[in-house]
């Protein structure tokens, strides 16, 4: 479960359609607000994936040397999740159009 302190700064809702059937499911990916774990030393940012059994609905902490690096690493992590979804699913926006970014 997502903690009460989680602040989403960006969110994307996608539809995963199986490549072998018409089965569809809705998945929400959220990017949390970055914050300092230790000022000037380490920053962290949360990624949350809702609606997919492989990713429990909890904060996945991505850490970096500063606020920008943890955001960059979080976005790369989200892209890897989307690439993983695309291996066995069509990845669609809510309107049914196909997502085409780096998949």
Topology of helices and strands:
Blueprint lengths: L7 E11 L5 E9 L2 E4 L3 E9 L9 E5 L2 H22 E5 L10
Antiparallel strand pairs: 1-2, 1-6, 2-4, 3-4, 4-5
Task: Give a brief outline of the structure.
With 103 residues, the protein is an alpha+beta fold. Helices cover 21% and strands 42% of the residues.
Q: SSE order, as H and E? A: EEEEEHE
Q: Mean pLDDT, nearest integer?
A: 89
The fraction of residues in strands falls at: 35-45%
Radius of gyration: 15 Å
Largest sheet: number of strands, sense, barrel closure: 6 strands, antiparallel
Category by helix and strand content: alpha+beta
Domains, number: 1
Helix content: 10-25%
Characterize the overall form. Answer: elongated
State the low-pLDDT regions, or none. none
Number of helical stretches of at least 4 residues: 1
- What distance separates the N and C termini? 28 Å
Please count the beta strands (DSSP E, at least 2 residues each): 6
Structure description:
The radius of gyration is 15 Å and the shape is elongated. It is built from one helix and six strands, in the order βββββαβ. Helices cover 21% and strands 42% of the residues. Strands 1, 2, 3, 4, 5 and 6 form a six-stranded antiparallel sheet that branches. The protein has one domain.
What tags apply to this protein structure?
1 helix; 103 residues; alpha+beta
């Amino acid at each position: 479960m997502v903690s009460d302190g989680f602040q989403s700064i960006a969110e994307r809702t996608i539809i995963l359609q199986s490549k072998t059937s018409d089965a569809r499911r809705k998945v929400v990916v959220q990017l949390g607000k970055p914050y300092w774990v230790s000022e000037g030393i380490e920053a962290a940012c949360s990624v949350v994936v809702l609606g997919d059994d492989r990713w429990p609905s909890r904060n996945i902490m991505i850490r970096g040397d500063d606020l920008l690096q943890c955001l960059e690493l979080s976005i790369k992590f989200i892209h890897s999740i989307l690439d993983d979804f695309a291996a066995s699913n069509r990845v669609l926006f809510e309107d049914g159009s196909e997502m085409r970014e780096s998949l």
